Amino acid sequence: MFLWGAATAAYQIEGAAEEDGRGPSVWDTFSREPGRTRDGHTGDIACDHYHRWPEDVALLADLGVNAYRFSLAWPRIQPAGSGPANPKGLDFYDRLVDALLAAGITPVPTLFHWDLPQALEDGGGWLARDTAHRFAEYAALAAERLADRVRMWITLNEPFVHMAYGYAIGVHAPGRALLVGALPAAHHQLLGHGLAVGALRAAGAGQVLITNNCTPVWSASDAEEDRAAARAYDILHNRLFNDPVLLGEYPDLSAYGVGRWDVVRDGDLDVIAAPLDGIGINYYNPTRIAAPSSDGLPFEEAAIPGYPTTAFGWPIVPDGLRELLVRLKDRYGEALPPVYVTENGCSQEDVPGPDGVVDDRGRIAFLERHVEAMERARREGVDVRGYFVWSLLDNFEWAEGYHQRFGLVHVDFTTQRRTPKASYAWFRDFLAARERSEH
After folding, report:
1. Under which main EC class is this enzyme filed (predicted)?
2. What is the pLDDT of residues 21-31, one digit of tens each?
């Protein structure tokens, strides 16, 4: 069965930051520091999904999706990142999973979507090897409660983005700006993934995946220095997180001054390369790379002219999704497991009209063309088995606070009123038409 779904993440929608035993996460700490997020916004309330989840499950059911990707909040389940589980935290996800199943919707939880318990960050966060072992323990606690009903699990969400934005340049939590000093966070996240795969399998979990954010990398020109920079960026963004999982080896990191990597111990790569049942791919746009104009990193991002952009300023390149998926097939061959597009979407300046309608026709065009690009990749031999729109709801968009709206459903963050947008109706009709054609 092909999975058609929508996606969210715990810190971005749940709120209830201090309720029922939830501990602080790095995003609670980061967003409360002045100047870290736009207008000082925090996820303290977000979409209040912790209290309004029945309404949100009803929206999913009416939408007609057969899967829902969400994330479990590690600090809600294990407030200090170690020790016994918090029963009330697990109870919340118990209720959510049961309601999804009752609605005929496959629950697809992600174990880690960037909300590391603050206590673990105080001990070094993902720069510390111990965090990988704590992650496996947390995975075991979650699976012990939910694996009897949850058949598909995702370990990590976008470890590249968490390493780069959280540890290398500091624009996301935990706000460290270490540049290449952030690289250990890549290995320890991947080690945590591998250890969690073992814990999930031991608890009887069905399918296990990892979700990587990937991008087609375009050289700014045919000049060799630009092409070399593009290769270096491709290694950092794509291959650093795909090669160890799929091939059991790291790519050449010499462009980043890494020869023998001290953080990698004997046996680590065997753990990281544990067989998977699929791989999640999040796609938003290609990346154009030029040779660096100053010392520092061995690349420099360049603008991509000639394409419309989202409210975020990201270029809209639907065929980039086809290009990315085909490149993955060509690069990894039989080592590439089934692929799930676990995030794809765009931000717009969505404002309800006088009649209350949110006419987001730009998002409809975006989704329509990206689904077509995914279908072209399938015709070119890529085994794609799912597509999840980011996102079900307008939500807390990390450092941008509540200023970037990705949702199929508009959220008034003052009243928490949910208003399905035109794109919600389009996706609902699209899914209904597909179901009719398949029967």
Report:
1. hydrolase
2. 999 999 999 99
